[in-house]
């Protein structure tokens, strides 16, 4: 006998929880199935940035932003390879979703500039706070039940050809559950699947693996069985900015390059414009000898350390022994084992180019995307952190339409099947704007629930009237 629900959600990261809360407010009977004992997936490990534009928090900080600028940035960073309609819906619904998250108790703390931002729009959350708040909100509604340590293994169609049933395993037993309105895949990406990474991204073999333990691409396989198409595969990229030890307990990460640090290889030579997306930097870093590179910065940048910040808490990384410090560039070079005169030469060439207003070598004239102005590295002491590339989120994913319906190779919806979050492709194209992954997960988690419950238009109409 199978249990009956209106909506079944596979995976309890931020996308699944937003879908659950949204569905619960529509009096739907919802089942969330999560493979791991602890909910949260990659969302729980995330760097905390959610990309929103035009928020009160930005206004309080004197930042002028708009949905139009956000959409422009995402399309620009994605080199126009993104599905424009999906990005536009992100733009249209993002402010409403920011307010909705706040009204459901999710706290936003600060706004920071990060990769792909032409103005600061990374709204920081504490992932544990956001995940536990949404989970409790879903539970409290009385409409949502959770099955933890339960892994969805297959999806089945009913006699009308509609995806209607999940088969899942728990405690070694097989269970079936039926959904009358829709099954929503929110089971994340495949950053922890060696077989899928080897098949689709062999160029990332040397990247360290970070991501939710359960993110093994199960959802892709579940949907492929029923003819789903996939988008953005050619653009799978790693993320630059992690210390080589970051695949362990601590996700030690520093983006000093977005504050003005330079990046050099083991010969002490720069190899990239440091203001580019950390995905593009990652691609170049993996081409360097022994995949080895270092961020180099000075005390002025060190002074911009932000306590507790996932990307900018340089002092904390220094106290953990992950950052080297020296009074001169030569001593720094000795500490990290690269030729002294090369590093000295690299820093002085960079400094004089920056002072002259033109980075002749790599064309850097901003800190990140079109934001900020680089200044010379010359205030001692100097710092270096060995930095590497991590495969932490896959971004390529199932083809979906603006209603979060999963599409087949002919762009036709696979009836009854929805997807949101990292498992959904088409949003980022050839590049990635920081915060848009958690952002799309929250926005399209809600859209998927509304579409399944056939009230998407109501949401969109409400938003366009604002
Ligand atoms: C270190 C790190 C830093 C990041 N920083 C940022 C950032 O600052 N901003 C940003 O926007 N993005 C960031 N990302 C990416 C972002 O965190 C993810 O893309 C996003 O959290 C994905 O959310 P999700 O809900 O789609 O998936 P997840 O949060 O990964 O949740 C998916 C869930 O599905 C479960 N699941 C998988 N298969 C099954 C199955 N067969 N049955 C049942 N359950 C299953 C998993 O166990 C998991 O709990 C970062 C990622 C990492 C790892």
Overall description:
Pfam families: FAD_binding_2 (PF00890). It comes from Ureibacillus acetophenoni. Keywords: FAD, Flavoprotein, Oxidoreductase. Residues 7-438 form the FAD-dependent oxidoreductase 2 FAD-binding domain. This protein is α/β, with parallel strands linked by helices. It has two domains: 3-235 and 392-464, 3-Layer(bba) Sandwich (FAD/NAD(P)-binding domain); 239-391, Flavocytochrome C3, Chain A, domain 1 (Alpha-Beta Complex). It contains 15 helices and 19 strands. The protein is elongated and about 75 Å long. The N and C termini lie far apart (46 Å). Mean pLDDT is 94; it is low at 455-466. Flavin-adenine dinucleotide (FAD) is lined by residues 10-16, 33-36, 41-43, 45-49, 151-152, 186-188, 210-212, 214-215, 218, 251, 392-393, 421-423, 434-439, 441.
Per DSSP E runs of 2 or more residues, the count of β-strands stands at: 19
Which consecutive residue ranges, at least 5 long each, have pLDDT under 50? 455-466
Biggest sheet features: 8 strands, mixed
* Beta-strand residue fraction: 15-25%
What top-tier CATH class of the largest domain fits best? Alpha Beta
From the alpha-carbon coordinates, what is the Rg to the nearest angstrom?
Answer: 23 Å
Structural topology:
Elements: E1 3-10, H1 14-24, E2 30-33, H2 41-45, E3 49-51, H3 56-60, H4 67-77, H5 84-103, E4 111-112, E5 122-124, H6 127-140, E6 144-147, E7 150-157, E8 163-170, E9 173-185, H7 194-200, E10 208-209, H8 218-224, E11 230-231, E12 239-242, E13 262-265, H9 278-285, E14 293-298, H10 299-302, H11 314-319, E15 324-326, H12 329-336, H13 340-355, E16 382-391, E17 397-398, E18 405-407, E19 413-419, H14 436-452, H15 456-464
Parallel strand pairs: 1-2, 1-9, 2-6, 9-19, 10-16
Antiparallel strand pairs: 3-5, 4-5, 7-8, 8-9, 11-17, 12-16, 13-14, 14-16, 15-16, 18-19
Helix pairs in contact: 1-6, 1-14, 4-5, 5-14, 12-13
This protein binds flavin-adenine dinucleotide.
Flavin-adenine dinucleotide binds near residues 36 and 441.
């Amino acid at each position: 006998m199978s249990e009956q629900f209106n909506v079944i959600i596979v995976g309890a990261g931020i996308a699944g929880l937003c879908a659950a809360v949204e569905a619960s407010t529509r009096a739907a009977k919802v089942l969330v199935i999560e493979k791991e004992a602890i909910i949260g997936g990659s969302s729980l490990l995330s760097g905390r940035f959610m990309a929103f534009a035009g928020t009160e928090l930005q206004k309080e900080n004197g930042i002028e932003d708009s949905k139009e600028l956000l959409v422009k940035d995402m399309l620009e960073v994605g080199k126009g390879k993104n599905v424009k309609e999906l990005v536009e819906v992100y733009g249209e619904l993002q402010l409403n979703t920011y307010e909705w998250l706040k009204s459901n108790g999710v706290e936003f703390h600060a706004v920071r500039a990060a990769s792909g931002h032409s103005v600061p729009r990374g709204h920081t959350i504490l992932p544990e706070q956001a995940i536990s708040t949404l989970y409790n909100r879903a539970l409290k509604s009385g409409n949502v039940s959770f099955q933890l340590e339960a892994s969805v293994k297959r999806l089945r169609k009913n006699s009308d050809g509609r995806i209607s049933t999940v088969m899942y395993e728990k405690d070694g037993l097989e269970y079936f559950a039926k959904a009358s309105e829709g099954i929503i895949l929110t089971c994340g990406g495949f950053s922890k699947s060696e077989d899928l990474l080897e098949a689709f991204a062999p160029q990332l073999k040397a990247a360290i693996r970070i991501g939710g333990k359960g993110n093994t691409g199960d959802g892709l396989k579940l949907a492929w069985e029923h003819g789903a198409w996939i988008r953005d595969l050619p653009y799978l990229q790693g993320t630059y900015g992690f210390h080589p030890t970051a695949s362990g307990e601590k996700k030690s990460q520093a983006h000093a390059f977005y504050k003005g640090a330079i990046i050099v290889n083991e010969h002490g030579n720069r190899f990239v414009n440091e203001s580019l997306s950390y995905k593009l930097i990652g691609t170049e870093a993996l081409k360097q000898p022994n995949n080895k590179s270092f961020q180099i910065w000075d005390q002025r940048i060190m002074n911009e350390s932000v306590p507790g910040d996932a990307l900018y808490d340089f002092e904390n990384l220094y106290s953990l022994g992950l950052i080297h410090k020296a009074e001169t560039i030569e001593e720094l070079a000795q500490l990290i084992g690269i030729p002294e005169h090369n590093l000295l030469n690299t820093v002085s060439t960079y400094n004089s180019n920056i002072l002259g207003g033109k980075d002749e070598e790599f064309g850097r004239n901003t800190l990140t995307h079109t934001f900020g102005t680089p200044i010379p590295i010359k205030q001692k002491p100097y710092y270096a952190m060995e930095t590497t590339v991590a495969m932490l989120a896959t971004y390529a994913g199932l083809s979906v339409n603006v209603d979060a319906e999963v599409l087949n190779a002919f762009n036709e919806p696979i009836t009854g099947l929805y997807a949101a979050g990292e498992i959904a492709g088409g949003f980022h194209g050839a590049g990635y704007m920081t915060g848009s992954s958690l952002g799309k997960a929250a926005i399209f988690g809600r859209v998927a629930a509304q579409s399944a419950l056939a009230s998407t238009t109501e949401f969109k109409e409400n938003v366009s009237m604002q």
